Amino acid sequence: MTTYLEANKQRFLDELFDLLRIPSVSADSKFKGDVRRAAEFVRDKLTAAGLDKAQLYDTPGHPVVYAEKIVDPARPTVLVYGHYDVQPADPYELWNTPPFEPTIRNERIYARGACDDKGQFYMHIKAIEAMLATDGLPCNVKVMIEGEEEVGSDHLGTFVVEHRDMLQADVILISDTSIISNETPSLETGLRGLSYVEVQVTGANRDLHSGVYGGGVANPINVLCEMIASLHDEQGRITIPGFYDNVTELSDEERAELAKAPFDLEEYKRDLAINDVMGETGYSTNERTSIRPTLDVNGIWGGYIGEGAKTVLPSVASAKISMRLVPDQTPEEITERFTKHFVSIAPAGVTVQVKPHHGGMPYVTPVDSVEFEAASKAFEDAWGKKPVPTRGGGSIPITALFEKELGVKSILMGFGLDSDALHSPNESYGLFNFYKGIETIPYFYKHYAALKQ
Ligand code: BES
Ligand code: MN
Ligand code: MN
């Protein structure tokens, strides 16, 4: 297997570059054709890798790509999930090289989607190709790569329900998360959920002269800022009544276990160019970004932001707010509590509207399963080290859905780094990580087949 990888290294990279050149931005309808082109590219590479039945499944949104290789129905089946869509590349001017012209610098691939998730799911296609080419695929494999992950996987739920039999598997394998560092491999054992809302505060029926009316009429931007500021208390806790009701507190033992993961606070601050961290009192940075829920403004707008000064009281102010959720919070419950609270704190003189966007359930995967053991052993084989179990802060809402609809657990075998700048300008993925992933994946199949005997 490793010789096959060695012999095909450059081609694997060239193919990934071709995929990275396709701007498959799911959020922006002007890229709709490119999104489809990326799906077709993936389909063709699945066929070329030796998988059967590779095809596009149309949805009301972007297509799902699916292929499979059933080597023996008696063997265990692995369902690989990934996403070929990417986040918008804006702001383009902050990229050192264009986002859709992949470039190598310092042993890293720079491009939008290099790590999230094109570079990561493509490792699976190449690992499967290598196993098939060397007669070493010990499990059945199904591959499902979707095109709407970055916009909330709106149509995937229906797709999964409608294709339950086709997708039936023993385990779901996903590479769309991070490891601690290239020296300290890790396996994420949980993901946060998400509740995303847009709020609008409206004052007078039109923009007003801030001299003529200022001081006498509510300014929606002032009001919105005060309302948002009141959503956290001095301890960094969220003030929405009932927000923490369903939060599962970890035991001291569980917290001590997670605290074993190496973490260098000084390096963390240096990387982000900040002079201090902040967050909820009583929790470490790692805990604040994984096992604790959050509320953050993602964008805020209103009034005059053009050149120079315009004296105006805006009629409307808006913000987009995300809440990261932990077990056993649900997006429905949290969105409802947020809405009720936010409307209730609106002062007289304005009206408030809350519009819910997409959401997703938090997810945890057990560490005492053969699936986790197989992944752990795969890391040991390829990295010479046992991976450290961690809890992740990001969200992959489909994991909870897979569990609910298929009754199958997901293994989060990601190979990225938090410093890969996912969703940011200059996203990158290490060549080391790309190739190490291709090397690690076949070990998972080997151990999983053996453990399921
Ligand atoms: N791959 C990420 C999630 C992720 C990143 C998990 C790093 C763990 C470590 C995924 O593509 C993503 O960005 N998810 C969105 C979900 C949303 C759009 C529903 C997120 O977390 O914001
Ligand atoms: Mn992703
Ligand atoms: Mn993402």
From TrEMBL:
It comes from Spirosoma validum. The keyword Acyltransferase does not apply. One of its GO terms (biological process) is proteolysis. Residues 190-347 form the Peptidase M20 dimerisation domain. Keywords: Hydrolase, Metal-binding, Protease. The keyword Hydrolase applies. GO terms for molecular function: metal ion binding; peptidase activity. This is Dipeptidase. It holds the Pfam family M20_dimer.
